[in-house]
Structures are given as C-alpha cells and as structure tokens.
C-alpha cells in the first residue's frame, strides 16, 4: 500500500475530489490523504458533483498539512500552481509530482446559472477521475 497526498491551496475542491476518487477507485493500492497550504472548508459544489459520480466526500474535511497524521508519504501530488510553489518540505524518499487542474470556483465565478457553474466542476472532476484511475503507475514513469 502506497501513501499519497493530494495538495492544493485551500483543500476545498480539487484535492478533496482526488482523495475521494483515490479511495473509491484505487483504495486497494493507495492510502489517500488531502490537505491544503490554507484551509478553506469543503466546497458544496464539489461535494455535489462527486455525489453525482457515486463518490461521497461529505465526510471529508478541509485541513492543513500540519493536521495530517504522521505518515511517510510515497507521493505528494500538487494539483494547483500555488500549492506547487508553496509545497512544504517532506522528509524521506517522497516523490513530488505536479499535475495542474483548473480551479472550478474560479471557472464558475462568471457562470450565468447554477447548472453552468456545475458544468465547470463536472469537467474538472472528470479530468481528476481520469488522472486518479491511472495511479500509482502513472507517477512511476
């Protein structure tokens, strides 16, 4: 079992989606965690679109790296530029990988309707699901 941390700025959306998909799709080979360099709380639209995809992340919580249990991570995956730039130091032989995804809240900010806003979340959700489905093999290339 490999330990993987998904790191984003606020740990409210993208990293939460990645953690949820990793547990649902790759829980046999990955122990998944998520955290942020800041704490923004859970994004309700992210929770809603993940539920549409059959993954319940409503029990997850927004947290800082310092709030995680003392885990030796095999992989740290940053999902946004800010988290990549501010990624804290992780001791040991951790493999750090940056895989950027667009920010659904920013994309949805100018949406004319709730359905249009959710469309942005769904598109990013589906891209994250595709990425997570290839883990951990895609990180070892």
UniProtKB/TrEMBL annotation:
GO annotation, biological process: response to arsenic-containing substance
SMART domains: LMWPc
Key words of the record: Arsenical resistance
InterPro entries with a match to the protein in the record: Ptyr_pPase, Ptyr_pPase_sf
Domain Phosphotyrosine protein phosphatase I as annotated: residue spans: 2-138
Key word Electron transport present: no
Protein name (record): Arsenate reductase
Natural source organism: Solidesulfovibrio carbinolicus
């Amino acid at each position: 079992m490999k330990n993987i941390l998904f790191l984003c700025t606020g740990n409210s959306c993208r990293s939460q989606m990645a953690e949820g998909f990793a547990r649902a799709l790759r829980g046999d080979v990955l122990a998944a965690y998520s955290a942020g360099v800041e704490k923004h709380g859970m994004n309700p639209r992210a929770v809603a679109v993940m539920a549409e995809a059959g993954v319940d992340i409503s029990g997850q919580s927004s947290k800082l790296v310092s709030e995680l249990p003392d885990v030796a991570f095999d992989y740290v995956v940053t999902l946004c530029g800010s988290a990549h730039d501010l990624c804290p130091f992780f001791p040991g032989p951790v493999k750090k990988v940056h895989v950027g995804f667009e920010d659904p809240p920013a994309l949805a900010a100018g949406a004319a309707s709730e359905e249009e806003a959710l469309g942005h979340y769904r598109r990013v959700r589906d891209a994250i699901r595709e990425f997570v489905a290839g883990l951990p093999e895609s990180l070892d290339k």
